[in-house]
Specification:
alpha+beta, Trichothecene_AcTrans, seven-stranded mixed beta sheet, Acyl_CoA_acyltransferase, 191 residues, single chain, 5 helices, two-stranded antiparallel ribbon, N-acetyltransferase domain-containing protein
Length: 191
Amino acid sequence: MSSPISSPILSLAEIRDARELAAITTSAFEVSDTIYPITWGNTDPGAHDTAVMLLFNPMQSETIVTWKVEIDGKIVGYARWSLPEICKVTEGNAVGKNGEDDKSASAQHKKKVEEGWKTPDGNLLLQWGLSTADKEGRKIYLVSTPQARVFYEKSGWLVKENLAINLEVYGGRGIYQRSWMIREARDKEGL
């Protein structure tokens, strides 16, 4: 547990952070995702982490930005942004322009489930992408779990499509649900 005086530190993730980011992803999915037991329940411990680590290669590129938040030297969450066009991203700024054809970016956010998104570090992870999208007139799309959907709706995302799969058909329990969501860029005056 972090001390009350600890401040979250936002920085670009590095490839050496992949194992910790994968563990955060696994811990979030295994406790909250109804499809996890079907797809990963019979695998060896660590199999999901290993598979997810491959998704972090590259950690950063011209079109992928992965931010992490640390408290007391421990990574507590991350946000991964897929950008529509070549951008130069450094800590503290983002430079890049969209072409007319594609003015959207996608977002993937993971935090330790018990800490929630309403924490200062969760807010840090979202703010970079939101402010960049608003400044550059970009839409942001994401795929949300039922647990995060209400949060994203309150933050300006609209549900465009829902998916629901009865997992009993596949030997599981419950309903697998996802919402495809989009957030329009906000006027600079509204920032």
